């Protein structure tokens, strides 16, 4: 199975998280981008501060690799205004796809109005500029029934606010890859969690992100029905290099 075009090749660690310097971090992002060009990956998924430099670099290289960035990363608890400001800046910098972290804590505490509002406004902003949006629901923070409810709510809000032609540009995404779990519980895209998302997402595409580490994992996710995989080990998913190794 040729999976290159399913892959959002991802590097999201800040210098504080990786222990690298700013310069080394940018070097990593550049390497990730060169690899994405060489392997014809769908997208590079990077922090907002690199969007402009990397978009300009890809344009100069005549590359079709897309640039995606994360909004409200990684906790999702930022205000709607802060998320929209970050998204607007990313659009001005040339981003192709916006991966928003939904305010899943607000959802868990029952503030559905807040979550609906940010979904509608954030999606509107992206679609207005012709961008794809993805909503990260952080499945490791949710019970199975919360995964089902939040995904179904997103599908309901999409139908109420957007048109059929837009649905392919509104993803539901599983995880940030940064959520801290206890007792070795997986923090990323489990097959079970992703299956629940797929069962409740209606016509919206699903992105599995976090913890997809081997060619088998990738193939299984694609067979389940996902449209995109977010991974910091894109080459390993092609069976190149050691399984699970990457950025
Ligand atoms: O797509 C987003 C994730 O941050 C990638 O997670 P990963 O390092 O487990 O592949």
From TrEMBL:
Presence of keyword Chloroplast: no
* Enzyme Commission number(s): 4.1.2.4
**What organism does this protein naturally occur in?**
Epilithonimonas ginsengisoli
Name of the protein in its database record: Deoxyribose-phosphate aldolase
Cite the entry's keywords alphabetically.
Answer: Cytoplasm, Lyase, Schiff base
InterPro entries membership: Aldolase_TIM, DeoC, DeoC/FbaB/LacD_aldolase
The record's listing under NCBIfam families reads: deoC (TIGR00126)
Q: Which residues form a coiled coil?
A: none
Q: Which GO terms describe its molecular function?
A: deoxyribose-phosphate aldolase activity
Record PANTHER family:
DEOXYRIBOSE-PHOSPHATE ALDOLASE (PTHR10889:SF1)
- State the top-level EC class: lyase
Q: Which domain of life is it from?
A: Bacteria
């Amino acid at each position: 199975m040729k999976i290159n075009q399913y892959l959002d090749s991802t590097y999201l660690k800040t210098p504080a998280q990786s222990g690298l310097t700013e310069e080394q971090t940018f070097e990593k992002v550049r390497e990730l981008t060169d690899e994405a060009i060489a392997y014809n990956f769908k997208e590079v998924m990077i922090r907002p501060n690199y969007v402009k430099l990397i978009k300009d670099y890809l344009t100069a290289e005549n590359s079709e690799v897309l640039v995606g960035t994360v909004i409200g990363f990684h906790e999702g608890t930022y205000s709607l205004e802060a998320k929209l400001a970050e998204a607007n800046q990313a659009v001005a910098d040339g981003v192709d796809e916006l991966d928003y972290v939904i305010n899943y804590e607000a959802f868990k505490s029952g503030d559905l109005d807040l979550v609906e509002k940010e979904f509608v406004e954030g999606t509107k902003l992206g679609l207005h500029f012709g961008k794809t949006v993805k909503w990260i629901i952080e499945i490791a923070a949710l019970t199975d029934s919360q995964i089902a409810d939040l995904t179904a709510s997103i599908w309901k809000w999409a139908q109420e606010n957007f048109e059929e032609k837009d649905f392919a540009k509104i993803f539901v995404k599983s995880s940030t890859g940064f959520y801290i779990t206890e007792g070795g519980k997986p923090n990323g895209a489990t097959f079970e969690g992703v299956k629940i998302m797929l069962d409740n997402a209606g016509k919206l595409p699903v992105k599995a992100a976090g913890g997809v580490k081997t060619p088998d994992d990738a193939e299984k996710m694609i067979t389940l029905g996902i449209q995109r995989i977010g991974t910091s080990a894109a080459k390993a998913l092609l069976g190149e290099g050691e399984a699970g190794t990457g950025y």
